[in-house]
Amino acid sequence: MTTILTKRQKEVLDFICHTIEEQGYPPSQREIADHFQMVGILGVQRHLLALEKKGYVRRGKGARAIEVIGHASGRSVPILGKVAAGSPILAEEHLLGHLMLDPTIARWEDVFLLKVQGKSMKDAGILDGDLVLVKPQRDAESGEMVVAMIEGEATVKQLIKEKKRVVLNPKNDTFAPIVITKKDPPLQILGKVEGLFRLDMSKQIKRR
Question: Which residue among the candidates 10, 115, 135, 157 is catalytic per the annotation?
Answer without folding.
Answer: 157
